[in-house]
Amino acid sequence: ENWVQTNVTRYYPDSAQVCNDKELQAWYAESINVGHAELRHEAWWPTLATPDDLTSILTTIIWLGSAQHAALNFGQYPYGGYVPNRPPLMRRLIPEEGDAEYKSFVADPQKYFLLSLPSLLQATKYMAVVDTLSTHAPDEEYIGERNHPSIWTGDAEMVEGFFGFSAEIGRVEKEIEKRNSDPTLRNRCGAGVLPYELLAPSSEPGVTCRGVPNSVSI
């Protein structure tokens, strides 16, 4: 939010700038009326009239496309890669009372479930898809990273602000590492306990169950 606020304050210093920017207002109207047409009449949509409004809206969008997506996506293979945990399809319907298969279902639900699972070929294809979705590319750019920020913008104030944001992300990662090594936090440190790394900003390539790219990258 601090990084977004730095940008908003720089380019939209007052409410008049926000309200009079036709392109900005058209973008937000399209987001509501076209992007979420079925919800466009809901009363809970935030207004876009002040710099604080813009900061909040942009922060939410960036959060959804970066940290939230990363936490949901890049940790799914250890669970979803085992097909019985999250089968992509079932080859038999759950029978209702009176169906021909109902008695066998009641007699041994586990056997019926196993016979309903995808075939070996179907399961293998699904595992490959989940593996691909969970994999970081070698050239992934993570939040707080940007090669040559001075090329991205000629505004020295924004370059300096970005370096501040990058340093803040580095502090977040160190705090996560600190908590993961704290023996008093028994939910994330100790024998048989997995450290919490889903929101650790950086990552190596591959399936790592950590790393927050700048945006959705699948």
Automatic annotation (TrEMBL):
Bilayer-crossing regions: none
Tree of life domain: Eukaryota
Residue span, Lipoxygenase domain: 1-218
Pfam families, per the entry: Lipoxygenase (PF00305)
Q: Name one GO molecular function term.
A: metal ion binding
What Gene3D superfamilies does the record tag this protein with?
A: Lipoxygenase-1, Domain 5 (1.20.245.10)
Q: Name one GO biological process term.
A: lipid oxidation
- Any idea which UniProt keywords this protein has? Dioxygenase, Metal-binding, Oxidoreductase
Protein name as it appears in the record:
Lipoxygenase
